[in-house]
Design a protein that fits this description.
434 Repressor (Amino-terminal Domain), elongated, mainly alpha, 108 residues
Length: 108
């Protein structure tokens, strides 16, 4: 059961991925009808920390990512599924544009 991501950020690679991951965690938690309070207790993470994670304001440790994934009953790869796709796709488009512009200049 993979939730649809909320609108993803595409500016600033690390910040965008952190934001998208937080969004995904929130959506997956919501799909399981878990409040932040209940989920934070279940995975033994401070609720205010979880809030910051879900808003993309925290650099989450691998230990806490494992707790979150286990609490959501998903693998780490499932937890990260799609969170950096937009960033990667945008970079590819920009690189392709630069190459196309350079090739146009060479032909002139």
């Amino acid at each position: 059961m993979t939730p649809k991501l909320a609108p993803m950020k595409t500016e600033g690679d690390i910040a965008a991925i952190r934001y998208n991951l937080g969004n995904r965690i929130r959506l997956m938690r919501d799909e399981q009808d878990l409040t932040q309070h209940a989920f934070s207790k279940m995975v033994e993470i401070n609720r205010s920390y979880l809030v910051d994670v879900e808003h993309g304001k925290r650099n989450v440790s691998i230990d806490n990512l494992i707790k979150i994934a286990r609490g959501l009953d998903v693998t780490l790869s499932e937890l990260f599924e799609g969170v950096d796709t937009v960033v990667v796709d945008k970079k590819r488009r920009l690189i392709r544009q630069l190459i196309d512009e350079e090739q146009r200049r060479e032909r002139q």
